[in-house]
Amino acid sequence: MITLRRARERRHERRRTQEAWLTFDPRDGPNPLDEAFGCLEILGEHRLPPGASVPHPQRDAEIVTYVREGALAYADSQGQSGVIHTGEFQHMTALRGVRHRETNVSRSDWAHVFQIWLRPSEVGLAPGQEQKRFSAAERRGLLRVVASSDGRRASLRVHQDALLCSAMLDPGQHVVHELAPGRSAWLHVVKGEVTLGDVVVGTGDGAGLCGERSVSLTAREETEILLVDLGEASASARQADRPPVVGVDVGVLLPIQNGKRPPTNGTVESDLVGLPSDRSDLAGIPAGRAVASDVGRPAA
User: Fold this and answer.
1) With contact defined as beta carbons under 8 Å apart, do 153 and 300 qualify?
2) Cα torsion angle, 247, 116, 40, 149, sign
3) Rounded distance, CA 256 to CA 254, Å?
4) How many CB atoms lie within 10 A of CB 214?
5) Is residue 207 a contact partner of residue 186, using CB atoms and an 8 Å limit?
6) pLDDT in tens, 53-66
7) What is the C-alpha to C-alpha distance for residues 111 and 108, in angstroms, rounded to an integer?
8) Tens of pLDDT along 111-150?
């Protein structure tokens, strides 16, 4: 079964010139997709003007950040800091109570960032982060594993039973990703257009596959995709307490706590407010064809 979520159906948030599009968002409430894609909590696309920060809920999660354009500085209240450059992916284990900030470091250029949040597979994971660059050449014409639970092919290691792949395809190129029984997948088109069976999926669109033997797609034009292969969500992940989303960054967008909830679809502006800029608790945090041949290989 294939479930589509078109780009226009994503939650769209705008604050001044900063914009975000969220395919998955816990603020949307109970989601009929949760059973099939239960550990995939947030899939967000962010376009950040110079100096802007990624809206960052404070909760336990495994976060994979992909900087497609620009550079993103990160820092947390435990003293870790660094910069994620174009083409780099970072995995971070975030814990409630540990404050994070991720900011476009440029004074002139915008940043284009994607984030995938996975619910923790267990309680009490240690905080930490790992970062690697995967060049366009490595991702050209095939599904390159960039994150996995076993660190295969020198990918980032995640705790959750999930596999994240990235591909950059030329027109006419075909890729196939086999799905083991009981597993599902979520495809996100970063840019371009692909055919998935009889369906055309374009920029910003997402497609979920359940009960399928494989993900088989063909690029109709120059295309970049992200593919998340998901195991069955663990009981702890499905039943985990989901507290109200609490922001910790300057300029984070938050629903007003007056019983009024932003709509699931469409642009959200008037129902959102920003945090004040003098938050003392943030002190110290700086403002052809191809087959996916490397997916199933064991860890090096």
Assistant:
1) yes
2) negative
3) 6
4) 12
5) yes
6) 887 666 778 899 99
7) 10
8) 999 999 988 777 767 777 899 999 999 999 999 999 999 9
